[in-house]
Write a structure and sequence with these properties.
The complex is a heterodimer of chains A (about 120) and B (about 600). Chain A is α+β, with helices and mostly antiparallel strands and about 120 residues long. Helices cover about 45% and strands about 15% of the residues of chain A. A four-stranded mixed sheet of chain A has the order 2-1-3-4, with helices on one face. In chain A, a hairpin with a 6-residue loop joins β3 (about 80) and β4. In chain A, α3 packs across α4. Chain A starts with a helix and ends with a helix. Chain B has about 600 residues and is α/β, with parallel strands linked by helices. Chain B has 23 helices and 18 strands. The longest helix of chain B has 19 residues, at about 510-530. Chain B is globular and about 90 Å long. The termini of chain B are far apart. The chains are: A alpha+beta (about 120), B alpha/beta (about 600). The interface of A and B includes residues 35 and 47 of A.
């Protein structure tokens, strides 16, 4: 170790690997993974989120799963919680939709309205 | 850097390892692979979470679900339900971590953790101790960087003095002052040593820190090296701590690879190296001069002081010796400032203290509390009270050098001075709780038996004096006590305290003196009435069958290994006292509770 800068770099890199264990104030992506969700294909959706987050080197994001959200016919469902914003619920998710949601909503802050529960249910 | 969606933290401290956490970890590995989620879920083996009683402990993030007493059979359910489907397995959660409305409380809300404040244990149960990156993520080695680049040795000493930190090994000497002595001492080469020869029965604070956060100790030792002008450190650790030794070795190796130990650290020209020295199990080697003799490869025996280690320590060079827990506090004091540390605790005792809770208590484990917390809060709020609704009798602190605190002093704030005042001592942090079933004479005898065993034999007061005291106690507990025994004990105790060579001998009589102070009546009952009020001392006990309760079933007679019980079927039986060996087997067997211990 020749400099403090070097230490700081390791710290930043390592921080992401332990972020999950801290009380997070960042973005939370919750994938519904009850039996209904899994049957409808929630696992590829979850993996797609992980892959996208990693590819884009997103910081302060938690990707997790929950049980059945209740509207089984619209599974796979995903809830996105951004700090200071209302929860957004996306339905009938696919790995392709994930890419757009990560790019437009999570990175740039524009909700992909056409995938939300409100749009699909109309 | 891999991104995981869940972290499974499995306690790898000695407590949980002995309750089976290694098998649990292996089963998790297998189950994750079976379900194909090994790349999404990270398994981390951490240090001690503190709640050893409920081990093996497993915590799953991001939910923070606290699973306790996890068995290998439970693992598939946690993996398929929680990790795969996101449904927390409520039945396996630690009971106190679930609120009335069935939501999961955060760890800080759980009764066991609520009143705790973790400084020395801050990373235990949080990071993987075998991964230096995780320590760095939690601001590890930042204090060393700050000290090497921004602070003079004098500033470090001033900071420690202002923080009010006192030695956590038991005696409570001001740490800043100790560092100053070592800095001012003249010598060609100086040494920094760490006392990890934790030997008090029931104490495991230092072990848990070494197992859960070894880098904190290494970092603090390097800071000490810079401050006093040393380039070599030794950690003296007992060979009975295999997990701690393994993790320390890994930590030293990783720190060397990163250049955080070795030559020219942070490009400042400061060199520092650390080596391990293993103790062979002698209690006396926890005494500083004996410890240093042992590091040099000599027989572990104490020598008179002065000269003090600060002037003449390892290899007759100036040496700084601190305890593990003391070191673990130092990086935090450097980073957060002396005022922060001094704002915690009482007037003369600052910061926190780690205690190993043991004995008759529900939550056996490791706790860290701000100084000034009362014993009542530790025993009842954090420790969860005494099992079986029994009555609190006393708490023993300071191990074989300490004393006991009776119920009347439950509300004493815990700090160095108030504990000394009531005849006990802070000690290194063992805290053994005793209930109404413990005989205080027997407890004193137990500790004295320990010190007699561990006395190195160099000085007569300790070698001969403690032996004589033990003989008197043996006599009292076997029903052969005489009038005048108590006075003899008191005289011997006074003389040994005044004349023994080292701390071991000087404090050895303490358990006897403090039990005499608070439980003299128990000694008197043993001597005058030949009776053990708590029903512990076998020689003073007798088992009797209550004729009015006995149904004459004969189970006790069948159980008795020496054939001491006889009687007609369906008629009350009797115990032949001359044959009875007082094993208690009959009492356990009796379905009618007709057998009593007197």
């Amino acid at each position: 170790m020749k400099s403090i800068k070097e230490l700081e770099e390791i710290r930043k890199r390592a921080l992401e690997s332990v972020n999950l264990r801290k009380d997070s104030k960042g973005t939370r992506v919750v994938v519904g993974m009850g039996t209904c969700g899994i049957a409808a294909g929630a696992r590829p959706v979850l993996l797609a989120f992980l892959e996208e987050a990693q590819k884009r080197n997103l910081k302060d994001i938690v990707i997790t799963q929950t049980g059945c959200i209740g509207v089984c016919r619209l599974e796979p469902m995903v809830e996105v919680y951004m700090p200071g914003e209302e929860k957004v619920t996306y339905v009938k998710m696919t790995p392709e939709k994930v890419k757009r949601i990560v790019a437009e909503h999570i990175v740039n802050g524009h909700v992909v309205t056409e995938y939300t529960i409100g749009a699909v249910e109309k | 850097m891999e991104l995981y969606r869940a972290h499974v933290l499995i306690c790898g401290g000695t407590g949980c390892t002995s309750s089976g956490s290694t098998n649990v970890l292996e089963t998790f590995t297998k189950e994750l692979e079976k379900n194909g989620i090994q790349n999404e879920v990270k398994l981390v083996r951490t240090g001690c979470f503190g709640l050893c009683e409920e081990g093996p402990v497993v915590i799953v993030y991001p939910e923070g679900a606290f699973y306790s007493r996890v068995k290998v059979e439970d693992v598939p359910e946690i993996v398929t339900e929680h990790l795969l489907k996101g449904r927390i397995v409520k039945r396996l959660l630690y009971h106190d971590s679930v609120s009335h409305d069935e939501t999961i409380k955060s760890l800080n809300e759980v009764g066991f953790y609520k009143k705790q404040m973790r400084i020395a244990l801050r990373n235990c149960g949080v990071i993987d101790p075998e991964n230096i990156d995780e320590y760095i993520a939690y601001d590890g080695y930042k204090a060393l960087a700050k000290v090497l680049t921004e602070m003079t040795p004098e500033q470090v000493i001033e900071t420690l003095k202002a923080s009010g930190l006192r030695g956590r090994g038991g005696a409570g000497f001001p740490t800043g002052l100790k560092w100053e002595f070592a800095r001012n001492a003249k010598g060609d080469k100086k040494y920094v040593c760490c006392n990890a020869d934790e030997g008090d029965p029931g104490a495991f604070m230092d072990r848990s820190i070494l197992e859960g956060d070894p880098h904190a100790v290494l970092e603090a030792m390097a800071i000490a090296g810079y401050t006093i002008g040393a380039d070599q450190g030794y950690i003296y650790v007992r060979a009975e701590y295999p997990i701690a030794i393994k993790r320390l070795s890994i930590a030293i190796q990783q720190a060397k690879e990163y250049g955080l130990l070795g030559k020219d650290i942070f490009g400042t020209g400061f060199n520092f190296d650390i080596s391990l020295r293993l103790g062979a199990g002698a209690f006396v080697c926890g005494e500083e001069t004996a410890l240093m003799a042992s590091i040099e490869g000599k027989r572990g025996e104490p020598r008179p002081r002065p000269p003090f280690p600060a002037n003449k320590g390892v290899f007759s060079q100036p040496t700084l010796l601190n305890n593990v827990e003391t070191y673990a506090n130092i990086p935090q004091i450097i980073l957060n400032g002396a005022e922060w540390f001094a704002s915690i605790g009482t007037e003369k005792s600052k910061g926190t203290k780690v205690f190993a809770l043991g004995g008759k208590i529900n939550n056996t484990g490791l706790v860290e509390i701000p100084m000034g917390t009362t014993l009542r809060e530790i025993v009842y709020d954090i420790g969860g009270g005494i099992p079986g609704g029994k009555k609190f009798k006393a708490a023993q602190t300071g191990g074989p050098s300490g004393g006991c605190i009776p119920e009347a002093h439950l509300d004493t704030p815990i700090d160095y001075d108030s504990l000394t005042q009531i005849g006990s001592m802070m000690g290194s942090g063992g805290l053994i709780v005793m209930d109404e079933d413990n005989c205080m004479v027997d407890i004193a005898r137990f500790f004295l038996d320990f010190t007699v065993d561990e006395s190195c034999g160099k000085c007569p007061p300790c070698r001969i004096g403690t032996k004589r005291m033990l003989e008197i106690l043996d006599r009292i507990t076997s029903g052969k006590g005489e009038e005048g025994d108590i006075e003899k004990l008191e005289t011997l105790a006074k003389n040994i305290k005044a004349s023994a060579l080292c701390g071991l001998g000087q404090t050895a009589p303490n358990p006897v003196l403090s039990t005499l102070r608070y439980f003299r009546d128990e000694y008197e009952a043993h001597i005058r009435e030949k009776r053990c009020p708590a029903g512990v001392c076998q020689a003073l006990l007798s088992y009797v069958i209550l004729a009015e309760k006995c149904k004459g079933c004969g189970l006790c007679a069948k159980e008795c290994p020496v054939g001491a019980i006889s009687g007609e079927r369906k008629n009350p039986h009797v115990i032949d006292k001359s044959k009875c060996i007082k094993c208690g087997a009959c009492m356990e067997k009796c379905p009618f509770h007709a057998i009593e211990k007197r």
